Amino acid sequence: MADPEPATEPARPRVFSGIRASGDKTIGNYSGGYRQYVATQAEGDAFFCIVDLHSITTDFKPEELREYTLAGAAMLFATGLDPDRSTVFAQSHVTAHAEAAWLLSAVTSWWAACSSSPWLLKCG
Q: What is the number of other CB atoms lying within 10 angstroms of the CB of residue 77?
């Protein structure tokens, strides 16, 4: 007689959101994102990222970018994200992201990148 399948728990949903590290945060950021992040952290495995590497695709001052990155993380915690229930991190602290970007750039032509919607304005 075959052993019965062990009971498995249903998979918890995984939530991921990234917030660009440039510019001051506004009430729109709060109502459009931060407030919802607090609610979603109870629904599953929650990951929130300050996407500081994305901010270097436009003009920036290094000291301001550092300040915006810290301010973005502080705003996430101030609006109620619980570090015991959510993972909050800066994109630049995950080396795999930059490594994957390098690998992608090694095999993607400039033309192919420029034909993708997010790059259209940057390719000029």
A: 13
